[in-house]
Amino acid sequence: MTNFSNFFGENSPLKTVLPGFRPREGQGEMAIDICDAINRKENLIIEAGTGIGKTFAYLAPALMSGKKIIISTGTKTLQDQLYKRDLPLIAKVLGRPVSTSLLKGRSNYLCLHRLDNATSNDKTISQDLKIIHEWKFQTDTGDLSEISGISETSNVWPMVTCTNDNCPSPSYDQCYFFKARKLAQKTDLSVINHHLLFADIAMKEEGFSDFLPEAEVIIIDEAHQIPDIATQFFGKSIGTIEIERFIKELLLKAIVLNEAKTIKSIDNLSKNLKKFVISSPKKEGRYEFHEIESQLNKPISDLCLAMREVAKSLASIAGKDESLGVMSETLEKYYFRLNSIIDPFLEDGLRWIEVTSRSIRLNITPLDIGNRLCHQFDMSHQAWIFTSATIAIDNDFTHFKDRIGLKNTLESNYPSPYTTDKNALIYLPKDLPDTSNREFTKEMLKNTSKLLNLIEGGVFFLFTSNKSLYEAKRWFSKNKKIIKKRVLLSQGDSSREELLMKFREDGKGILLGTKSFWEGVDVRGAALKMVIIDKLPFKSPADPLMMARLEHIKQHGGNGFIEHQLPTAVLSLKQGVGRLLRDQNDYGLIVICDNRIQNKSYGTVFKKSLAPMKFTDDRDKINQFLESHQTNNHDSKQ
Ligand code: SF4
Question: Model confidence over 561-582: pLDDT tens digits?
Answer without folding.
Answer: 999 999 999 999 999 999 999 9
